[in-house]
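Encode chain A's predicted structure.
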Amino acid sequence: MRPVVVCGLFCLLFMGPFASAKEEPRVDIRWRAKGGYIDHRSVCYNYPRLSLMQRRCKRQAKQLFRDKCEYYSARVEEVASPYRRRYQREKRRFCFSARQYNPL
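Encoded structure for chain A:
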């Protein structure tokens, strides 16, 4: 005899996030720069404060900073002067934010 699995409201409420690995919809991430660096207080300023969209935006911004840090770090090694200076500047900006930005 096969066991019967009863799944009702519990499965819908608590198992939903684990049932499928859906990716969050992408949001428009904006920030202001101050002195060549990203002003962390202004990240996702284009969404209402403490809204679900702003929280989603801030989580995605943290990942975006990491991704851009990796990209510009690789580009600095590949690109010759005089273009290297631009990539070094961008690398410094995004790697600093990847380390320091905390979306909580």
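The first helix runs from residue 9 to 19.
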